[in-house]
Design a protein that fits this description.
The complex is a heterodimer. By secondary structure, chain A is α/β, with parallel strands linked by helices. Chain A contains 8 helices and 21 strands. In chain B, helix 5 runs parallel beside helix 6. Classes of the chains: A alpha/beta, B alpha/beta.
Chain lengths: ~450, ~250
């Protein structure tokens, strides 16, 4: 007797075509925008349509949970209903000293304060800057063509953005105080497209902080943001993105590029505390000798949050330096992905480039993926990369307990310290305190959930 | 109520090897006792056992802190009950500032709902740091990270001064200190000597006992106290080494 097993016929279910947006996601029809801008928007929209949704085969999306980007029928966010409450929230606990403070809600400016801007500095909402400084914006706007996998998001951003800030510090213009920018988002299947464009001319120095928050505790939103930083000869830029969106549904994409010229110094930091899913792409280009880029990140993930970060440190001239220092603390079933490449291009001799990603695993179910990479096409180069994953050292816990600190508090203090190591590398004590207090606040919320 | 740190017939193992083999010792409040002994005699094991390190298993005996059975308490409870160990090799805690660490340790001693008075705390800390010749920059630096050996030991003494224990054990606090640092550290300890507090100083070298003069000196050998005497015993050990004691112990 024999049993014949006929294989079941394979039914191929076609993947549903993913229609993120049916129509160009314009916040409002802007008739004042210059012609070049409207043209750019149309081209971007066409390009967005041509580009495929990322698939598993795409190296730039390795380890990513692609279910997170199955969006359907999104629309630009509607005006916020209670802007006054959002402005009040933005002011609570902000650093005491700042050069300017802007608050955007659902793509629209709802508040601005520019009392402490240095003379000569331009610091305007993008929409206004296009009207008053169109050529200056155009010279820098979406100039970076290289992306780290997020081309479709970049094209979408180009088609839609009209919110966020244009910051231009002319030659020698210096402010120690940061420019603060809040971006609130809310709604059901709604999207915002915040843009940040910062130009520091020769020996100018500017610090800017983008804060991303949800309007309500549970918002099904998508942020598609871009930030471009240009530091000319001897210029200094510090940029911080503090992301504290609703962890129940909010998704956040931010594509960053830095271009550091001769002897310029750029520091960027990504702090992720909220959102259900985050994709950070960060490109740092050192294009002339003496350029230095430092890239920091501190991420506290819990629940089923996924933070996906891709970076490229591109050394394109001799005597350039860069340092990447990322820290992830993971709890519950959260996931992080770090993929970082150091590329020392031909001729970029005498380059120093470092890359470190450290993961602190607070649960056995948490997952930290690291893919460090090096590509060196020059001589006299000092490079190192390293990635570690581990739990809190028992000896550290013992030391704190031996001073009377209960075990749970000891773990919390050590984890906070672990993340603080990234924040500590930034400049501005008040700013660091502000950032650290946000990390602390999330930790306190973690405790409450056991 | 008894007023002493009383170790009675203490046996402890590490990785299955018995290191402490019936150690008995009593330090009355107000006194400073010193333990000396050759390498491997169990000095550091005694310190770690009292602090509650989980690598060490107590198989017999008791440690009473006044009337409290120390060995029944959790690690952090021991500290809050008034026990302090100045570590031989203090651990580094990256990203946690010295000030925040000390503040958390003080906070842990307050009843629920009460907060450390930040202004008074800093004032007190700065004063004590001045006594120890520690630069203010140490408040903002990560605990022990990048500290020299001497700086770490000073930091241990600073913690002791801030936490004001009733009984303190100093585990080879003198090792790695130059003579100036040793003087400063000893002055810090001497300033804390009081009828309300007992000290146990573990050391290899008699040198420390010139600066922290003990009431009693004990010799530890193979997990037991084999000889006790006055401060002159330390000088004798310095001169003659430990061999004569072990020879004395041999059955005739």
């Amino acid at each position: 007797m024999s049993i014949l097993v006929t294989p079941q016929e394979e039914t191929i279910v076609p993947e549903p075509a993913e229609v993120w947006f049916a129509n160009p996601p314009l916040t409002e029809t802007d008739t004042e925008a210059p012609a070049w801008y409207r043209e750019m928007q149309e081209k971007s929209w066409a390009r967005y349509h041509e580009l495929p949704v990322p698939t598993r085969k795409n190296q730039d999306w390795r380890f990513a949970d692609l279910k997170k980007i199955r969006f359907t029928d999104l629309a630009p966010a509607d005006p916020a209903t209670d802007p006054a409450a959002l402005v009040a929230r933005a002011m609570t606990g902000r650093p005491e000293n700042f050069a300017a403070h802007f608050v955007f809600a659902n793509n629209r400016l709802i508040y601005s304060e520019t009392a402490d801007l240095p003379a000569g500095a331009i610091c305007l909402p993008l929409k206004e800057a296009l009207a008053t400084h169109g050529d200056l914006v155009r010279a820098h706007f979406l100039q970076e063509e290289k992306n780290l996998g997020g081309d479709k998001f970049a094209a979408l951003h180009g088609a839609a953005t009209l919110s966020g800030l244009f910051v231009h510090f002319p030659k020698g213009c210096v402010s120690e105080k940061p420019v603060l920018v809040h971006h609130f988002s809310g709604g059901e299947a709604r999207a915002i497209f915040p843009h940040t464009l910062v130009v520091a001319e020769d020996h100018a120095s500017v610090s800017i902080v983008d804060v991303f928050e949800s309007i309500a505790p549970s918002e099904q939103t998508l942020n598609v943001g871009m930030v471009d930083l240009f530091a000319d000869r001897g210029g200094k830029i510090q940029y911080v993105a503090l992301q504290g969106l609703s962890d129940n549904g909010a998704k956040h994409v931010q594509i960053h590029s830095s271009r550091a010229g001769r002897d310029a110094a750029v520091k960027v930091a990504f702090l992720n505390l909220g959102a259900a899913w985050v994709r950070n792409e960060s490109l740092s280009r050192m294009v002339d000798s003496g350029a230095d880029c430092q890239i920091f990140s501190a991420n506290l993930a819990n629940g089923i949050q996924e933070y996906d970060q891709r970076t490229l440190q591109s050394h394109e001239a001799q005597h350039t330096t860069s340092d990447l220092f990322f820290k992830n603390a993971l709890y519950h079933k959260s996931r992080t992905i770090f993929s970082g490449l150091i590329h020392v291009k031909p001729g970029a001799h005498h380059t120093d480039s470092f890359q470190t990603c450290r993961n602190l695993l607070g649960s056995e179910e948490a997952e930290a993926n690291s893919m460090p990479g090096l590509e060196i096409d020059a001589d006299q180069v000092k490079c190192s990369h390293g990635s570690t994953a581990g739990q809190i050292s028992e000896e550290e816990i013992f030391y704190l307990r031996a001073r009377g600190i209960p075990a749970d508090d000891a773990r919390k203090i050590i984890s906070l310290g672990f993340l603080n190591e990234s924040i500590a590398k930034l400049e501005g004590d008040e700013l660091k305190e502000y950032l650290f207090s946000r990390v602390e606040r999330k930790f306190a919320a973690l405790d409450g959930r056991g | 109520m008894s007023q002493s740190l009383k170790i009675d017939n203490l046996h402890a193992t590490v990785d299955g090897n018995e290191i402490l083999k019936g150690l008995t010792l009593e330090i009355p409040k107000g006194q400073v006792h010193a333990i000396m002994g050759p390498n491997g005699s169990g000095k550091s094991t005694l310190a770690k056992v009292m602090a509650g390190h989980e690598d060490y298993v107590v198989t017999d005996g008791t440690v009473l802190l006044d009337d409290i059975n120390l060995l029944e308490l959790e690690i952090d409870e021991r500290s809050r009950a008034g026990f302090f160990l100045a570590f031989q090799y203090p651990h580094e805690i990256p990203g946690v500032s010295n000030a925040n660490f000390l503040r958390a340790a003080r906070q842990a001693r307050l009843p629920k709902g009460e907060e450390v008075d930040a202004v008074a705390f800093y004032k007190e800390m700065y004063l004590k740091m001045d006594e120890l010749g520690m630069d203010r920059k140490f408040t903002g630096r990560s605990v022990n990270e990048g500290f020299s050996g001497g700086e770490k030991k000073r930091n241990e003494i600073l913690q002791m001064m801030m936490l004001e224990p009733t009984y303190a054990v100093l585990d080879e606090t003198d090792s790695g200190l130059d003579i100036d640092a040793l003087r400063i550290v000893a002055a810090g300890v001497n300033a804390m000597r009081s009828p309300e507090r007992g000290f146990l100083v573990i050391t290899h070298y008699q040198r420390l006992l010139d600066y922290i003069v003990p009431d009693v000196v004990h010799v530890l050998h193979d997990g037991r106290i084999v000889k006790s005497g006055g401060k002159e015993l330390a000088l004798e050990l310095e001169e003659k080494g430990y061999d004569w004691i072990t020879e004395e112990l041999l059955p005739a």
